[in-house]
Structures are given as structure tokens and as C-alpha cells.
Amino acid sequence: MASCVKDSISDNHFELTIEVPFPSQREVSIALQSLSPDREPGTGGTIKTLSTSVSALCVKWNAVEARSLRVSVGSFLDHLALVMETIDAFGQPALQCK
Questions:
Q1: pLDDT tens across 59-96, in order?
Q2: Biological process GO annotation list (predicted)?
Q3: What is the pLDDT of residue 10?
């Protein structure tokens, strides 16, 4: 699922970055719009940043606790799996005419 995974630990600070490839930019856009509204709860000290490249969704986490990072990543992957299943179920997204 992830084409690139980077993690680092420094001074009680945890960071994880993944890139999730998609067949088209349209599907990347759908995934970004579907997953962006889910903000991290304020108490965990975890920050999640979503961005896109040409055909990949890029996600970066910064956390002060390994546990909060693990919970956030697990939850995100569950939501991502649901988005990908939905895209597969409805087929290739059609382009919208403006």
C-alpha cells in the first residue's frame, strides 16, 4: 500500500511519513477530500498533515508519544482502506464537466 515509509525518533519526538499511490490524480483528490476532515484530537499531541503528489497521497505524522502515533496511524489506515474500497466499488471516477 505505501510506496515510501520513513520514520524517525528524536528526543521523545516521533515522526512517520507514508506515500500511498493511486492510479490517477482524480482518485488522489477523492482520497484527500475524504480523509482531510478527520482532525486529530487535541489531547494526544499528534499532528497529521495530508498533501498530494502527482499520483500519491502523502501523510506525515508528528507525535510526542509513541502510543498516540500508533493509535492515529491505525485509525487513519482503517479510514484509508474504507475510502479505497469505496473507490473500487464504484469504479473509476468520472470527470466532472464544469
A1: 999 999 989 999 999 999 999 999 999 999 987 766 65
A2: tRNA processing; tRNA threonylcarbamoyladenosine metabolic process
A3: 61
Q: Distances in Å between the alpha carbon of 78 and those of 37, 74, 84, 87, 96?
A: 15, 6, 10, 15, 28
Contact criterion met (CB below 8 Å) for 19 and 4: yes
Using CA atoms, how far residue 95 sits from 24, 29, 92, in Å, is: 11, 12, 9
Residue with cell 512517520: 16
Q: Are 63 and 44 in contact (CB under 8 A)?
A: yes
